[in-house]
Structure formats: C-alpha cells, structure tokens
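Tutorial sheet, problem 5. The two components below are modelled jointly, 1008 residues in total.
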Amino acid sequence: MTLQEIFATLDRFWAEQECLLTEAYELEVGAGTMAPDTFLRSLGPEPWNVAYVQPCRRPADSRYGENPNRLQRYFQYQVIMKPSPQQFQDLSIASVEALGVDPVQHDIRFVEDDWEAPTLGASGVGWEMWLDGMEICQYTYFQQVGGQQCRPVTVELTYGPERLAMCLQGVEDYRDLMWSEAVGYGQMRFEEERQYSHYNLELADVEMLSAMFEMCEAEARRITTEGLPLPAYDYVLKCSHLFNLLDARGAISVSERTGIIERVRRLAAGVAEAYVQRRRELGFPLLDDQAAEAAS
Amino acid sequence: MADQTADLLFEIGVEEIPAPAVLPALSQLERLLADGLAEVGLGHGSVSTWGTPRRLTIMVRDVALRQTDLEQEVKGPPAAAAFDDEGNPTRAAEGFASSKGLSVEDLEVRDTGKGVYVFATVSEPGREAVEVLPEILHDAVASLSFPKTMRWGDGDFRFARPIQWILALLGEEVIPVEIAGLQSGRVTWGHRFLSDGPVRIAEPAQYLSALGDAYVIADHERRRKMIAQGAREAAEEAGGRVRLDPELLEEVNFMVEYPTALVGRFDPRYLELPDDVIVTVMSGHQRYFAVEDVDGALLPLFVAIRNGDEQGLETVRRGNEWVIEPRLADAEFYLTEDMRTPLPDRLESLKRVTYIEGLGSLYDKTMRLQRLVGWLCGRVTQVEQDHERHATRAARLSKCDLNTNMIGDTKLAKLQGRVGAEYARRSGEPEEVALAIGEHYRPYSAADEPPATTPGRVVALADKMDHLAACFRLGLRPTGSADPHALRRAAQGIVRIILDARWRVEMPAFITEALDNLPEIDAPGAIAPEEAGEQIEQFIAARLEGELDSRGVIYDLTRAVLGAPCPDLLDAFDRALALRDIRARNEHAFELVVIAAERTANIVRGPKAEEDLQLDPEALTEPEARALYSAFAAARETLRDALAHEGRRDYEAAWEALAGLREPIDTFFDEVLVMAEDEHLRRNRLALLAEVDDLFLRLLDVQEIVFEGEAD
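Model answer (structure tokens):
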C-alpha cells in the first residue's frame, strides 16, 4: 500500500465516522496537535470531529537524511473526536485493519505513553499503538489544553504514516518507501532532508532567530489583547518553531530552556482563553441550541 | 438460609491500564471489598485477584447470600413515665411501642443502674447480599486510587483508563451496578484479536477457564511463569541465556494477555556500544530481554514477548527487529559524536549547563565536589593516598557525561554516571576513576547497593551532601510526600554509605563544610546557612531513624540515642544496636537503671534546675552522697576506657558501668534531701546529680525512654 493510498484509505474510513476531512495548517508546526484544528477546537464545549494530514517540523531530528527512520520533516495523519466516543479504541484498530493489517498475523498493542506539551500547557493520558513493536500511532485523551481542563474530553489519534507504510511495504528505510506506484519517498525528499539538516544543525543564524522570537512573542501578546486569538495563535506557532530551531542549534542552555518554554506556554494559554471567550460570545455555534444555552 | 453462600466475581474491563498500576489497584480492590463486606456483615471465604492490561478482577468465594438478622435494643422512656401507679401503660409507653412496630406487651422494663427504663427489642431482618453489593462494588471502584487518573467522553468519572465493561456476578446472578455510565452484566471479553465476540460467564467458577479458552491468561502469576519459561526456552534455542530482569518481567507481564516469546537479532556491530546502553535501549524502549552467552557477555539477540499466539510470528519478529535497529543506530550516533570529545575535555562545556537555578553551573558544582572530596579524604582514616587521587579525578569528571548526546536522550538519561564511567575508560582514565564515576549516584533506591569502592564512596558522599546543602540553602526542603529534588534519597544515600563503609564522618562539620562551600546565595526563599545546617542535620537524623527502625530498634530508644550527643552517624548506629540488645536481654534490669537515671535527670533538668553548678566532692557530707560520688567517679573511668577507641567502642562495658550507679542513686534519693535550705549544700548536691546525668548522656537521654503501659 503506497503512502497516498494510506492517506486515501484513512480519509474514507474516518469520513464514514463523520469526521470532517480538512487540509493541513500552512505554518511550521512540531506536531499535528499544534494545528488550530486540534489545539483550538479541543477547547470549550463544542463538538468537533476532524481528520487531516499535517506536515511536521522537528529540527532536532535532523540526520542529514541518513537515519533510516528519523526525519526533520515528516507527516502526521491526525484524527480528532470530541467528545471522545466510548468505542474509539475499537475504531482505531478497525482503521488499521482497513489498511490491510490482519491483527491475528501481527502484534498490535497499546503501550502507556502519556502526553505532555509544555509549550501548549497541554497534557493527556494515552498510549503508543504498536504494530510488531513499532509505534505507528499515538492515542491520547486530552485532559488539559492551553492550561484549561477539557470538558468534554477530546480524543486524538495521530498516525505516523511513514512508519506505518514501512511496516506495510516491508521496507527498513524511509528512502525505499513508495509514495505512489511510480515515485519513492527518498526520491522526493532525501535532498530536502540533507539541506534542512545542514541548515538546522549548522547554519541557522542564532542571533536572527532569537530576535525573531522576541518579535513574534510581542506580536502574539499584542494581538491576543486585541481579541483576535486566531492570528495571535499564528505567532505562537512561529515562536514555537523558532524555539525548536534554536534548540537544534544547541543555542539554548538547560536553564534558558525552562524559561522559554514558560514564555510560549503563557502565550498559548492567553490565546486559549481568548479563543473560548470569543466562542462564547458567538454562542458556541457548533453546539445545538439547548446545549449552547446550558454552556453559556 | 443464613448459611447459604455463593462466589462473587467482579471484573472491571478497561482500555490498557499502565503496567505498574495493575498490582497496586488489585490489592486496593481486595482491601476495599473486604472492608465493605465486613461493614455490612457479609461473611465470606478466600479472595483471589487477577489482572491483565485490560481487566482488574476479584473473586470472593463463599459470600453469604444475606446479612444475619440484627437484633437491636432501643431505650424508651423511664418506667415511671411509661406506667402509672397501677402498672397500666401510659400514652408514652403506647407511643414508644407503636413507633417500633410493637405492642405494649412486647416492652421490657430494666434497671440500667442509672434509672429504670422501658426497652423495646427491634429485630431488623438481614438484607439480601445482592441488594447491598451494588453500593459496595460501586464505592470500591470509585475509591481506587491511581498515580494518575483521567476523564473521558463527557463524563466526570475518573479512573486510570476508560472503563469498557463491568462484570458482576454473585453465583449465577448478575449484581446490578452502574459505574461510569456502564451497566454491569455477565459478559467479559477475551483476547482482543484471537477471541471472537463477548464471552458469557454463567457462574464465577468458570471465569478463568472461559477466559483461557478466549486466549486470556487472567491469572497473572501463571502468566508470569509462562513468560519466564517461554523466554528461557526461546533464548536457549537461539544458543543463549536470557537475562530475566525481574522489574522488566513484571512490566511485560502486565502488557500482555496471552504471551508468546520470540527471539530477534540485531547487527553484531552494535555490541561496540556500552552494555548498559544496549540493555537500556532494548528494555526501556521496547521491553525486550537481553540475551547473553555462557560467560555473561551480551549476544546480538533479544527476547520479545508478543501478545498473541504463534500465528504470524515471523512477521512479528521481523517487525521487532526493524524497530530496534534505528534505536541502536541512534545510540551509535550518540557514541560516535560523543567520542569526538574525550570526557575530560567536556569539563569546560559544563559552564554552560545550569545545575540548579541560583547555584551556578555544573562546572561550579564540579569545583565544589573536588573541594569537598579533598575535605573528606583528609578526615576519613580509611582513605589512602591513591584513593584520594582517584576520588579527586573522579569528582572532576563526574558530571562530564551530562551534556553528552547519550545522556541527552531522555530514555537513556538514567544511565548518567554509568555512561560517564564507560566514556572515562574509553578516554584512557584509570579503572578506579571510571568505577567511582560509575557508582557515585548510588544507591539509586532502597533496593540498590551503595558504592563499593573507596573513591566511589567519597565522591558519592560529596555529591549528595553538596546537593542537600544547595537545596536546603535555597529553601527547597521537601514538603509532604513531594520531593522533586530527591533529597530524601540523597540523605538516605549518605546514611547508607557511611554505615556500609563504617566510616566516621563528623556530620555537623561535614554539613558546615558543604554549606561554606556554596557560592553567595541571593534567591527568594533562601535561608541562612545556620538554619539550613540544622535542617540538614535533622533531615539526615530522620533517615538514620529509618535505618534503625528497619533493624528493630524501637522508636523511643532511637530518640534516646539521638537525644544524646552524636559525634557521628556510625557511633549513634552502633550505640543504638548495642542498647537494643541490652534492653532485649533483660528489659526489667534496663528499666530499673533508666528509672534511677530519670530521677536524676528530672531534678537537674526540671523546673528547679540551677545554673553554673560546681561540684566540690570534699564538701559532700552524707555517706550516701559520698558513696554516689565514688561510684560515679569509678563509672566515669570505666566509661572513658570503654569508649576511648574509635574502632571498637565497648558500649556493653559502658552500660555496665552506668548500671552500677543505680543503687547509689536510689539510696541517695531515699536518704538525702537534695533541695536543702543551705544554698551551698544544695548546689553541691545538684552539681553531683548533674555530673551523673551527663555521664548517662554519653550513651542515651533516659528521659526519652517509654516503658510499657506508660503514655508517650
């Protein structure tokens, strides 16, 4: 099964569960969770079911394209359901079966892996889903996002499509993965990994990035107080990515690190609060009328 | 009817519970249910609990089907008010009787000793077990505590993981209980993939075998044995011997419901990695068991436990082999990168790593450690010149592994020290230095051993004391059970190392040295060095109390020993054990001596105590006083000799000498009035008693001793 077939199959599967199929967010994010379709939508009482593919950037995972399964840019297939349905775990397994995995012939397991994103003031309880020892999904019940308790609870299923495809295609190196029948992942992306690794690890201008961080932080704060959480959140995401770049350059000491994480967390918490406030003003449009009344 | 019983079976089906949470939850469940049954007076037989990642199960055998009838006596009005002069019941008696559903003839009149009253005997029939059990089961589940709980869906119920089903049977009958919006039934679920559909349980006794048929080994003891045996056989077949790390075995046991062992291989070139790294990569990330040859050397093999049967085993093996490869490749990458800079050359870079906010860098900490090691080496007689050289070097390199790529990987971070040791070897450092670096964090836990080499002990002591000094000075002492800086472990480590090595380290001096060693501290919440010093001393003493307690020293004796001046931990320890034995040999004799000494102490330390006493033996006139003085002088001599030699202080002899004072003390008190009118006489008698009290204080503070029957 090619990568694009995996995406198409998962789209079909989750659309049948009444998930919206949306597109990736266009800014650099470290994980699909940071996209507004997850981070912001998991706030407040409104229901939300969605699936999308999100490209992710992790500069610290730069390996010049040489590590068989570590990449500084990769994909996540993100599913969000809120409130979490009682049978979600069964759905998660059924989705893997839909990809042609016969669970009897494999070893599928859920291994404790609670999640915490300090920069987002977010944490959850969940698992890695293992396929023959390989982590192919993260399965998490959000408990807190942007410093706020999640009520109702959002459940998130994040697939690692590359890992999944490696299992399904029986290859040991991402370079041998087939994106389509005709074009391989390595052909598409090896050079990108090489160039970005050089940049991320060796060449990124630390001074410039630090200055940009300060600017984006100020802008995020300013726009939040203007009551526009959506554009403000863009600048939070930029801060987060700049922090990751600086970190990959080894430019952040252990003590600075805690401080910077705390600064980004405060921005995210401010946005989260402003977002819920704004949704309340709008009367929580995604709730049915009765529930909206009760919630406001 | 009351003697009829049935088995109770209760299973909570969950999404995979974290492995370490299962056993504690089961023992809580057992206690909660036993308490619940006892409270409502339902008798029962033996209890078993079984756990898997997806279920917490308890079986209580022979639960009484109904409570025993309760007969209760209710006191009514006074007899004088209940009956008139002719003995006819009044309105009060009729009202009381009818309120209890009885007629007046059923009432009894009895003298309670505090007046004559009317009594009614009310019998409350026992309720059916199946009526009272739902509440007990519900409350037990709601009371289970986990290290971490969660909510799910739009509910507010908290549990370790979402609950998926509830099975509750009393005999063949379902106990109706609702938990987290789920209704109980007689249905459980077998293995997620090997079993098809729900499994109906007709009666509790069928449970284990029905699940067995559905590919679930619910009995965790049996499952553990299967895993151990499977792992051994699989490794043997591949020509090796499995290292069955018990902690890992326990974890794996609660990650599978139907275990099958398989052997995988990895590229032998990874054997170049330090052993600890290979084993940790395999166990930490993937929960694989390491495999060794007959000489104990690692083989490029691992044993994985799959949750399933033999089907597709080859696919599963291949998958697991793929996964371990990039993880080992990462470690190899770290090693290659790290080795570009020999360990000693990393020292400079520690200047950029903060130790604790407000206490400088790890480089600063390293410099402090070197000084503290120097101080210790000068004071501990067992430390020789070579030891000092190696310990100083080890202290200098001890933190150099902290900014390596290897330790930077969160899953390998726990190898700090051990990676440093390996890197030190590879950087050409002497083996003694490598060993000391490797063990300076030990003991990691109560189950772990303290360092075994002299340089390792010295560096470990310095490291821990510096940590205590730093944290207490910053006002970071632990509160309640929270101890984020692991200060209890550090203090415990100090105590255990010293007792294990039998070193004499003057604790207050050591603490002061470590505090003086710190840089200027100007942080909010910081406290003065003197106060920090006192806190640390008490904190360490509390850990020593724990050590004594685990050796059967009763708490009052511990307090008595620590209430006397303690030149060092080892002295207090030995003294406590000696007195423990003396007391155990003849509790009565021990008490008599202590009582005599207490009389002394109560006077010289009591409200009538006087200051600046000066004993003038010549001015003691009464024979009893003179006798006490000469007994005291002899005891003082004996004590001095008995305690003179640091290496072998003879506490038995010292105690014998003190015990010899009992009679003279008692006689003195019987015959002499201490509080004489004459000031000179009085003060001289008090001075004598103060000297006697001081002598006892060489061994213990008698006022702390509590006798049986005496309130604390």
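Marking note: The interface with chain B takes residues 63, 67-70, 83-86, 89, 93, 102-112, 114, 124-125, 127, 131-134, 141, 143, 150-153, 155, 166-167, 170, 172, 253-255 of chain A (CB under 8 Å). Full credit if you identified this.
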